[in-house]
């Protein structure tokens, strides 16, 4: 999928029971409708097709206060990266433990070992580790699946993506959301298959889904998991991003 030209505006805030929630409007010419998302930190994010829709976007947020409140109530609380916390990493629950002699974080059997001074926030270094691990796994699986369907892939990158699990550029470069580190391995496998299939079909036609089915026969289950449970992946570690959506045709 090609990169979109977007423009983001800090459009003000709305009041929700005495709590001020900032509103960010993202102008994306490829958007077909107004789309509102809420992140667990309380930021309202709205995507609209044109600058002239910004006023309608703000009205949307004002008119949907009850929905915004219910979304925030449904979201799981953040789970910080700190010793004693257990988090899923690449299909295995890992207990975060602190070892003063450890220079950089590392994964062991059922643990994630961090070092440095006690009390220092390890979030940034853990995210760097998870990005490296996810990149290695995604590259290995992408190469295998590309061979399966007879296509070539370019670079494989991992980023903090705000609203997608993965993408495929017209040049064949694949990008994946680092938060897939916390997803079930079968779900990560599906996302890889999805993006590799775009090397043959840059759309979501029946031919595209037939390729996905060839590489990942249970893809429908994993797609449903991402839709219904994906927001839990944003509770771990870093500042959460938008994880719930509301669309108006």
UniProtKB/TrEMBL annotation:
<dbReference type="Pfam" id="PF01863">
    <property type="entry name" value="YgjP-like"/>
</dbReference>
<protein>
    <submittedName>
        <fullName>M48 family peptidase</fullName>
    </submittedName>
</protein>
<dbReference type="InterPro" id="IPR002725">
    <property type="entry name" value="YgjP-like_metallopeptidase"/>
</dbReference>
<feature type="domain" description="YgjP-like metallopeptidase">
    <location>
        <begin position="32"/>
        <end position="228"/>
    </location>
</feature>
<dbReference type="InterPro" id="IPR053136">
    <property type="entry name" value="UTP_pyrophosphatase-like"/>
</dbReference>
